[in-house]
Design a protein that fits this description.
The protein has one domain. The protein has 21 helices and two strands. Strands 1-2 form a two-stranded antiparallel sheet.
């Protein structure tokens, strides 16, 4: 390994080594209370051990966040013999992933403690999933992309089924594993067909070969179908969305947050790397597929969410609809073979996914805050009268719901507006029609978001239990809600970062 390669992969190496060290070191952290005679102590369920791992994990995530932020303006690096790339897009998405996992751990601590799930192995699995996201985001080779995808997915399977005393959790874990393996199989089969036609696993070489008019277009299009299907599974869009509501509802809420937030950023990177960086010459084949997936996701996600009484399940169908908007951003990138609007469209989709992750963090943070030992705050009725119990948390939840609905001045409004503008800017009747359709679906979607707001502010509380949280949770949650509001009123800085990252990638 050369010094150049070492510098490019240094954050990933730090994360890997630190994760392994934390797992081993937690076993040797001495407890103040000795275990009862004749009772074997669970080495992964030690209060001081998990406190040690938790504290140093937060420090590690903060360091990685700052490291990636410091690399935003650096030139693109391709290391490890073309397997790994460090560029502005990957650095920005990795920084956002670190921030998302950092916040998720803070929100989840009390929830996991109350359910005896706050264990060193839980945190280590989260960090390993984050490592998989890093590898996936920086993949410059089909093998690297697949390796990152599986490294991200495997710890998630274990996390979903960790609450083995719950039938719903075990069922969700099995369903997530089977459908995740099916998606990986689709993706791997499509990648193997790409390799068979192009003779290369390198994304740049595949791009050059695909652009050659002499290539067998039929075989490439057939492989593309499997790739898009695999991507659709991972994004959770219709008709490959079956796992999303069941996994969201069945998994512990802390795990649901881990699945709903940071992995979405990695999924966006995978979509961009494969479809834009690699298969852009085939956009005439994959754009119609994405149009169909986007339309179906907006319809099924928004309409089905209306009938839900479980708030986690409602947010799952909401996520399906939100991913439909992200796909619309990819659809508007190339119009009639012209790429003049590509940077604006793809940066709008990137801004959308970052804004969505920010909003999702606060939404599930409130749900976990309302949960307590022996009680899961999962029904919409559990939020009744929240404003009377805690105006602050009701306000944060309302801001998040307004953002998801696309109501100004929240970040969700600007994100939707940016995607719609990229569609309208094409000047084509079909794309303008797509924009109008998306607006209508957003109006339908606003109903179930506003229904939750009505429950929080106008219904009588079903319990007199006070809502309490540690100081760090209150501070982070308040800042989270404030960011959702501020980025909607002043989105310029984040939008500029997204636009710059995308422009640099398209210029390569």
């Amino acid at each position: 390994m050369q010094a150049f390669d070492l510098y490019a992969v240094l954050p990933e190496l730090v994360l890997l080594l630190a994760t392994c060290i934390l797992l081993v070191a937690s076993v040797y952290v001495r407890e103040n209370v000795k275990s009862a005679p004749g009772v074997e102590q669970d080495i992964f369920h030690t209060p001081r051990g998990v406190g040690f791992v938790y504290f140093f994990s937060l420090i590690l995530l903060a360091y990685l966040f700052l490291a990636f932020i410091g690399r935003l303006n650096e030139v693109s690096l391709v290391a490890m013999n073309g397997l790994f790339q460090s560029d502005s897009l990957s650095n920005l998405l990795k920084a956002c992933s670190c921030a998302a996992v950092f916040v998720s751990l803070i929100y989840s601590k009390q929830y996991l403690t109350d359910r005896a799930l706050f264990r060193p192995d839980f945190i280590v699995l989260v960090l390993l999933a984050l490592l998989g996201q890093f590898v996936l985001i920086s993949g410059a080779n089909l093998l690297t992309l697949y390796l990152g995808l599986e490294l991200m997915a495997l710890p998630m399977y274990a996390l979903v089924a960790m609450r083995h005393t719950s039938e719903k959790s075990v069922e969700a874990g099995i369903k997530y594993f089977i459908l995740g393996a099916l998606a990986s199989g689709f993706l791997l089969y499509g990648m193997s067909m790409l390799y068979g036609v192009t003779g290369s696993l390198d994304l740049i070489e595949i791009f050059k070969t695909v652009a050659d008019p002499r290539i067998n277009h039929l075989v490439m299009a057939f492989g593309l179908v499997f790739i898009v299907a695999g991507l659709a599974f991972k994004l959770g869009v219709v008709p490959f969305h079956m796992w999303v509501p069941d996994v969201y509802q069945g998994a512990p809420t802390a795990v649901t947050l881990m699945i709903a937030a940071a992995p979405k950023l990695a999924a966006f990177a995978l979509l961009f790397r494969l479809l834009v960086n690699t298969l852009l010459p085939l956009m005439g084949d994959w754009q119609p597929m994405l149009v169909l997936l986007a339309i179906l996701s907006l319809i099924v996600g928004n309409i089905t969410a209306i009938a839900q009484t479980n708030v986690k399940r409602m947010l799952a169908y909401s996520a399906i609809a939100q991913m439909g908007f992200v796909l619309l951003g990819f659809v508007a990138g190339v119009i009639n073979g012209q790429t003049t609007l590509a940077a604006n469209a793809y940066s709008s989709a990137m801004f959308y996914i970052v804004g969505y992750v920010l909003t999702t963090l606060a939404s599930f943070g409130i749900i976990m805050l309302l949960a307590r030992q022996g009680f899961e705050s999962e029904e919409i009725t559990d939020l009744a009268g929240l404003n009377q119990r805690s105006p602050l948390y009701a306000g944060v939840m309302a801001v998040c719901l307004f953002s998801l609905a696309g109501i100004p001045p929240m970040v969700g409004f600007y994100a939707k507006l940016a995607v719609l503008q990229s569609l309208v800017a094409s000047g084509q009747g079909f794309y303008i029609g797509l924009a109008i359709f998306a607006v209508l679906m957003s109006l339908i979607g606003a109903f179930y978001y506003l229904r939750v707001v009505k429950v929080m502010y106008f219904d009588e509380p079903v319990t007199a239990t006070t809502v309490s949280a540690d100081a760090d949770v209150r501070v982070v949650l308040s800042l989270n809600g404030l960011l959702v509001l501020v980025l909607g009123m002043a989105p310029g800085a984040l939008m500029a970062l997204c636009a710059d990252a995308i422009a640099r990638m398209l210029a390569v």
